[in-house]
Amino acid sequence: MRKFIVGSRRSGLAMTQSKQFIEKLKEHYPDIDVEIKEIVTKGDRIVDVQLSKVGGKGLFVKEIEQALENREIDMAIHSLKDVPSELSEGFMIGCVPEREDMRDAFLSNGNVPFRELPAGSVVGTSSLRRGAQLLAIRDDITVNWVRGNIDTRIKKMESGEYDAIVLAAAGLKRMGWSDSIVTEYFDPETFIPAIAQGALGIEIRSNDAELLEMLENVHSEKDAECTTAERTFLRRMDGSCEVPIGGFATYEDGEMYLIGLIMPEDGSEQYVVKKSHGNPETLGNLVADEMEKIGAKDIIDRINANL
What we know:
The protein has a five-stranded mixed beta sheet, with helices on both faces. The chain has helices spanning 12-28, 42-45, 62-69, 128-137, 150-158, 169-175, 178-181, 209-215, 221-237, 280-293, 297-305; strands spanning 3-9, 33-39, 75-79, 91-95, 104-108, 122-125, 142-145, 164-168, 184-185, 200-205, 245-252, 255-262, 271-276. By secondary structure, the chain is an alpha/beta fold.
C-alpha cells in the first residue's frame, strides 16, 4: 500500500480534526502509512483583518490545493464551510465523513445567556452571518469582529475584551472543550448555521481512483447529500465570506429539507426559505429560486457591487 501525505492547516483545531479523520481511516486500513504536512494558508497569516475585507473565498484552501496539484500531498482535510462552492478543475471532494454538531455555540463571561446580556454588551464573532443574526435578535448589543484560533478568542473574552463570543460547536467538540465552557447552543432552526458547518471535506485529485475507493469506507452519503444541497444554494446565490448567508439541510421523516438564510450585515432584514426535495442539487436550486423571487438576491448583488 502506498504512503499517503495529508495536507492540513497548522491550527490546533485543523491538526486535531485531521488526526481524528486519519484514525477513522486506519480503522479500515490499519497498516496505512499516513503523514501530515502542515500548510500555512493566507487566511492563517492574516489575523488582524476581518476575512470579508481581504476576499473570503478560498483563503483557507488555495495553498493546500496548490500542494495537491504539485503532488506534494495526496489529500487535503478541510472544514467544508471554508471550501468555495466551486472547486478548481482537477479536484473533487472525495469524502464527507460523518458530520459533527452544526450549531453555533454562545460563550459568555459569567455564563450569561444571550437574551439576558446587559444592553451595550460586546459580542465577538468573525462571521457576518452570525453578526447579522445576533443584531436581528438584540439591536442593543455591539458586535465586534474577532479573529484567531479558538483558544485565542476564548482568552480575549476572558480578559474582558468581549463580554461574549460565538463559535462553531463542532470545533469546540472536536477539541473536547464544549461541556465546560459553552453557555448555550443556538437552535439551528432559528439561528441558522454557515453552509456545511460541522462537516469536513476531504479533497483529492479527481483522477486518484485508488484513494477515492478507500475513502468510501469513511464517507457519509447522508451528510454528503445535505452539504451538497447547502453548497448548491450557496453557489447559486454567489455567496461568500462577504455576504451574511447561511443554510443547513437535514432529513426529517425520510425527507431532505433545506433552510436558507440571507440577510444584510446590519440584521435589519431576514429572508428565510425552507424547501424539501429528494435530489440535493434540485433542493439547493429550489431554495435559491425562491430567494430570487422574494428579492433576497438583491441584498447579495448590492454587497457584491460594493466590493
